[in-house]
Amino acid sequence: MSDYSDFDHFGLDLRLIEAVRAMGYRRPTPIQSKAIPIVLKGRDVMGAAQTGTGKTAGFALPILHRLLPHANASMSPARHPVRALILTPTRELADQVADNVRQYASHTALRSTVVFGGVDMDPQTQALRAGVEVLVATPGRLLDHLQQKNTSLGQVEVVVLDEADRMLDMGFLPDISRILNLLPRERQSLMFSATFSVEIRKLAAGFLREPVMVEVARPNVTADTVRQELLHVHESDKQSALLALLADPQLPQVLVFVNTKIGARRLARQLQREGVNADAIHGDKTQEERMKALEAFKSGGLKVLVATDVAARGLDISELPAVVNYDVPYAPEDYIHRIGRTGRAGAQGRAITIATGADDKAVAAIEKLLKRTIDRSRIEPRPVPRSRRRGGQDERQRRAPGAASAPASAPIDEFFLKPYEPAAPSAAQEPLPEPAATGKAAGKVRVPALLGGSRR
Predict the structure, then answer these.
(1) Angle, to 10 degrees, between the axis of helix 14-22 and the axis of helix 91-104?
(2) 275 φ/ψ sector (left φ>0, alpha ψ -120 to 50, else beta)
(3) Who's near 205: CB < 8 A, 6+ residues apart?
(4) Within 13 Å, how many C-alpha atoms sit on residue 425's CB side?
(5) Measuring CA to CA, which residue among 354, 351, 358, 318 is closest to residue 337?
């Protein structure tokens, strides 16, 4: 199966080729060269390619070409049923794929939309009820719309599972099974993923019919355009090492990965206190907040984006110069997905991992998966003031201009330095004299005021 030198040789509709050229595509990537002709023939496909190799165009362009005979300008929703369904694991990836589909179909009458959780359902409901040919969705939100009968999948001709390995990792298998059972039996099915585990192959066995395997790179191989580095530091020097990296003028933008949501929030706040233009995306943020941060990063208005693996899965940021693993990932496979955010489409990139002694086993597992040793690098950690490490501000910065200096320490009273000396008996310790017994008070014992008696 030979590679194609340009998009003209696929036999795609000229309107699609015109849109592709307007997006700056000139030469198909290997996965596109091998997948597009097979998808155009209507065959089921298992596409395995490392992230950042152009899988989206590999399935979206032939799908749009297939649906063009159904394109029409009618306002009737019945004339625009869902004919292609693309399932993705995360909101960000769904939005990205939908944006690519819109651009590919910009010169046609085909309609498309995207549905995912974390945002108001009403606009999505209106778009679905108006009718769309191509629907991009996350499994959970799609089931919500199906339950409310906002759309139907009875006329789907093509279904795509994108990043199938991540969908299984995130526990979407029951949702995927429910959705697949709602589709027509006669359909074309495509599965694209960076890796194919045993579980993925089991799903493919019941999902695909005599699929053609398309693989353009060995599993778990990183791109040659990414320079991988490992910085081994003490745990207390991690933040200062990151600050030193961010001071490098050759890294105008950096995507920083951490393992937890709370870690993402904390690191973003720490960087902000150091004067770094940073923000975070993670699962606890609203979709609006996540998209706002992502758009700011894509437009160059944000220097550092701190992200968890789930939030950043499938992000396509053109010409991203570097990725930093502030936390070494728990799973070695996640290392490949992380560094695949840089060095995309043939561009050069750097992947820097900051590791401590506690990460030695995780680093060894990654190198075993890669079948290579990651190059060790050195960097002078940028000093972090002690007050900043505690999360506070320097006392001199907190003090208002013109404020009086702190008073000097008070002199120590030498009395408190003397050894203990027992006090001499005093009159206060002598027994009280017996009062004279008069009237009703006769026979009563006088109680001192200290013990609750009355004063006279």
Answers:
(1) 120
(2) left
(3) none
(4) 3
(5) 351
Task: Count CB neighbours of 383 within 10 A.
Answer: 11
Question: Contact at 8 Å (CB) between 6 and 173?
Answer: no
| E strand or H helix that includes residue 324 | strand 322-325
Mean pLDDT by 10 residues, the chain (456 residues): 72 94 87 93 87 83 96 94 95 90 96 93 96 97 96 97 85 92 95 79 89 75 80 92 92 92 93 94 80 86 88 67 93 83 76 94 91 84 52 42 45 57 54 51 56 55
pTM > 0.90: yes or no: no
Q: Provide the residue count of the chain.
A: 456
> How many Å apart are CA 295 and CA 282, to the nearest integer?
15
> How many other C-beta atoms are found inside a 10 Å radius of the C-beta of residue 422?
5
Per-residue pLDDT at 377:
84
DSSP 373-423: PPEEE---PPP--HHHHTT---HHHHSPTTPPPPPPPPPPPGGGGSPP-PP
In the prediction, which pLDDT does 282 show? 83
Residue with the two structure tokens 């000093």: 383
CA angle 304, 310, 314 (to 5 degrees): 75
Question: What DSSP line would sit under 103-149, residue for residue?
Answer: HHTTTSS--EEEE-SSS-HHHHHHHHHH--SEEEE-HHHHHHHHHTT
Q: What is the 3-state secondary structure (H, E, C) of 32-44?
A: HHHHHHHHHCCCC
